[in-house]
Amino acid sequence: MKVLIVSDSHGKGKLLAQIVQRVSADHVIHCGDFCTDRKELPSGSLTVVRGNCDWERVPEEQTWESHGLRFFVAHGHQYRVKTTPLPIRYRAEEAGARVACFGHSHFPFCEQSGGVLLINPGSIAYPRGFSVPTYACLELLGKNVRVTYYKTDGQKIHKPGGTFPL
Fold first, then answer.
1. Which of 31, 59, 70, 140 could bridge 7 with an S-S bond, Cβ 3.0-4.6 Å?
2. Would you tell me which CATH number, out of the four given (3.40.50.2300, 3.30.70.3550, 3.40.50.300, 3.60.21.10), belongs to the domain 2-165?
3. What tens digit of pLDDT does each residue of 140-151 get?
4. What is the pLDDT of residues 83-103, one digit of tens each?
């Protein structure tokens, strides 16, 4: 299973479509601030949440599960992700999730904490505190997951990311 995780595309629908086509994932997670009409989001298997800049009526948070792995998805602004990952980790634990995907800070982040893998894919439009726009891919590898970060042109970034036990 391969999951594409993006956030904070801020109206760059064509770029998002190019990334989705290039990656060819089994599922796409958009962590909010897509800032377009919902119909401009990718078709297919998609989990999307509303960010603080979105006007479309989509859920504030969602869970998605595949292959026995549960994901909690939120934009992150309601969980103070710019200051600490603990509130979103606690909310993911409450939801019974092993992976928490979020955005808002525009900064890529990947860390396992308290049994929850925390993933912020960064922003494909406007990075902050990081030199390039980014997205992440999660691949299920038996009892592990591998998280890999990429520039929007598809070039692999060596940090953050890694392989984590489930």
1. 31
2. 3.60.21.10
3. 999 999 999 999
4. 999 999 999 999 999 999 999
